[in-house]
Amino acid sequence: MKDFKVIRVDSVTRVEGHGNIYVRLSKGKVRDVLFEIPEGVRLFETLVLGKEAREVVNIVPRICAICNISHRYAAIRALEKIFDLKVSSEVILLRNLMHYGEMIESHSLHLFFLTLPDFLGYPDAIAMVEKYPEEVNTGLRLKKFGNYVMETIAGRMIHGENPTVGGFGRFLTKEELQSLRDNAEKLIPEAIKTTELFRNLHYSTYAEEGMLFACLKPPTDTYGFWGDEVMISNGDDRTIEEFRVLIKEKVYPHSTAKRTLYKDRPYIVGAVARMNLLGERLHGAAREAFQHSYSLSWIRNPLYNNLAQAIEIVFALEEIVKTAERLLKVKRIPNLLPIKRGEGKGVGAVEAPRGTLFHYYEFNEGVCTKADLIIPTAQNYNALERHLRVAAENLFSNSALSPDKAKLELEAIVRAYDPCISCSCHIVNLASK
Known about the structure:
Blueprint: E1 4-9, E2 20-26, E3 29-36, H1 44-47, H2 53-59, H3 68-82, H4 89-120, H5 133-154, E4 163-164, E5 167-168, H6 174-199, E6 212-217, E7 229-232, E8 237-239, H7 240-246, E9 248-250, E10 259-261, E11 267-268, H8 271-278, H9 284-293, H10 305-328, E12 344-352, E13 355-364, E14 367-374, H11 376-395, H12 403-416, H13 421-424
Parallel strand pairs: 6-11
Antiparallel strand pairs: 1-2, 2-3, 4-5, 6-7, 7-8, 9-10, 12-13, 13-14
């Protein structure tokens, strides 16, 4: 009889999609740790073939209801390069505004309803309501406001089609901009309290191991969520075109999602990567929260992605106030630019809530002939699995911990990464296994 024991967590809860944790022990030592992705593949790279630019932009956000704005924005940025469209600064500001709304909605959903129960010892947010009503209500208010921002700018809360290639179908009124500005300002104190809440939680150290980080480099010396260069914590700076080619996508037998490596190393994208690389660029209350919170543990411990997201909510609210004020001074509403049939190829990249998102397209005679979408969660899988292994080695060598407690610790690591599993499952070549 084989001397081994299998520990499984099937269908990790409080994440988007379906993933399983598999740990195999032999003679008291951890032999295998896998994060299995059993979901069916999604065929978006083929769904857009033969489609015109604005059709593509309306299809690809359907990859995800949570980060649909990021998918739309990344596609728009790629397609405007291909068709050589130069939008005005006012359009860029309004796009930034909608992007901040998505960050607030997604981060507040993750922090208050998916991961906070781990730290407070509850199975879910509903069970927290009696003892922690203020925290739950804060999460609801922040999430509702993020939805309001997206609905106001995009036209719908989910899959709004107002932002498109060449600009917006409709620009906002002064009244709408003023409402966004005022409501964001009112929520800043609650967001600051959220950073204090997550700063004072206990972060276990079972999974600590240093990792490589990557995020987009904003075009100016600021913190931000888009750019045309990638910053990497080993000192490399790459254009998004270079980085897309250099990261190696690979299919593993236990996963229907592609995974990536940079120079044969796992790397992390997302809020904790952005904070590690760009945190010193923050201003205002977000900068104060970062300075009060940051430590070298952020380089080693994936649980700090939660606190990084809390700080980004403060940043996004402050930026909504400033951006809306700038847009309120705009006297001329920019027109939607026309698209001419053409050909070419281009990469667009933005920082989605879960990390750097790449959209690559090739067009010929005005229609799409090739597409490649590289999803943040797919980039994080190898690092996530590595942190699960380190944690398993520490947890299962600790005889004082029950198997159930060890499983909860492993689940908390997965949830800290805030994976968007369905997004990550794309076309795979099974023969490449």
